[in-house]
Amino acid sequence: MNSTPHSPTALPELAAHVSRLAPSCGPVRLVAVDGHAGSGKSTFAGLLAQELGGAPVLRLDDLATHEEFFGWTGRLREQVLAPFARSESARYEPYDWHLRRFTHARTLEAAPVVLIEGVGAGRRALRPSLALLVWMDLDPEASWARGRRRDGAALSAFWDAWTRAETRHFADDPSRPFADALVRQGTKGPKSYEWLTGPGATRHTPHSLTQRDGLTPPC
Predict the structure, then answer these.
(1) Fewest Cβ atoms nearer than 10 Å: which of 15, 110, 144, 174?
(2) How many domains does the chain have?
(3) Residue 108 belongs to what domain range?
(4) CB–CB of 24/111 below 8 Å?
């Protein structure tokens, strides 16, 4: 990828780049879209999925819970990554944030490209299975302020707990230093983006997990 910003063609260029990558988990090119809560991950992932011809998107909010904001790694590996590694479709049980329980299983096809969107999508335990890690490059304060405005005062206490948990997560397991691409909102409308080559663009070297990670790569 290039090291200069792009605006009108950012999404098509990233989509073309993804299509040229080798599969990273069985037959799937896994693309993670990470960033702070409120940074625009969901919107960007949806637009990139459209540019990729309707690629499936797994939203990590479906795997997290009230009790475990970031404790979804085991569920992701068991329900999604392991089936993909076997060239099988995944089945996962999404969490209902209103009912506070997991609901009926959904199928996630082992498509040529699958996007994983959410805070922590680029965590160390997942990176060995990724073809590309995209970081939404908006600072935490601006991201959280935007998220709070979106969700309103009724969720203020939730946001207080979330921001503390997110700060702890990224202090222990940062994603941005490993990102292949840094994406920023452009100035020409809601679908305008710029991207820069990220600090981890040359990171695709053999990765060995440590005992501290406590996991072995599934793909």
Answers:
(1) 174
(2) 1
(3) 10-197
(4) no
